[in-house]
TrEMBL record:
Organism: Nicotiana attenuata (Coyote tobacco)
Gene name of this polypeptide: A1_0
PANTHER family, A to Z: NAD(P)-BINDING DOMAIN-CONTAINING PROTEIN-RELATED (PTHR48079:SF6), PROTEIN YEEZ (PTHR48079)
Highest classification ranks of the organism: Eukaryota, Viridiplantae, Streptophyta, Embryophyta, Tracheophyta
Name used for this protein in its record: Dihydroflavonol-4-reductase
Cross-referenced Gene3D superfamilies: NAD(P)-binding Rossmann-like Domain (3.40.50.720)
Cellular component per GO, a single term: cytoplasm
Amino acid sequence: MNKTVILVTGASGYLGGRLCHQLFNAGHHVKAFVRHTSNLSSLPPPTDGGSGGGTLELVFGDVTDYQSLRQACSGCHVIFHAAAVVELWFPDPSRLFSVNVGGLKNVLQAYKETGTIEKIVYTSSFFALGSTDGYVADETQTHTGKFFCKEYEKSKAVADKVALDAASEGIPIVPVYPGLIYGPGKVTDANIVARMIIERFSGRLPGYFGQANERFSFSHVDDVVEGHIAAMEKGKPGERYLLTGENASFKQVCDIAAMITQTRRPSFGIPLLIIEAYGWISVLFSKLTGNLPLISPTIVSAVRHQWAYSCEKAKAELDYNPRSLKEG
């Protein structure tokens, strides 16, 4: 797809910014859909393509504002819909649903009206599939909808059904499901792995966070970006692809970080009840200061479950090749 015109929603985010860089370097014309208040430091500078490479165009709007989104989609061939509210704790859950569900519905409506869009790559989340207590899940799993650890999980599960319904109607959408994303770049409020490591090495997290038996699927951000691009080039419309990585506990993350830095491993685990109490205190201070808490009760609720997934389908069909947690 040389010189494909590609719209990236959520372009100023942790994943979206790195996705824009890769698409730009591959020679595409990238339309970065951002809000006027967005921090654009993670994006390539806007260019007219005079250097012979890709081009980047800033397009301002909001996925909840249909007219701005519809205008941004004009002339596009591919949409990477990566815009989402990813919260540790969010005071207004309605915002989660207006962005995570309503934003996707607006993208689908824009597809119907433009007539030029050939594929939509939709960034879902492992949370949309539900927990995997005692087993490793694949793309056949759908959320039971009976229990949600957090409102974000619920919003992504609802949006997942919207995406699958659209695929059944013939819309060329490819949902991808990253694991817990980590890696280099700016530290965002939702980048819990980077934040945990910072707390660990600054001395504010003296013990292990979580339990030794919980399992999350950790995905390096650059692997997830490559998986998105592979989904554009090779992904089959209507098929789901898990862009996950190594299944491990937060204890293993801390142990690997200690080994790499040749520092002492934490000597004890912090009971989840204590972390949960700290989370409630953090939420209280958050309400007073306006700053998001490092830990919230919803995070503790998620850590009480396992979230382990297999990416064998993405390996086979997209040539997805995630690195090990130690390498990452």
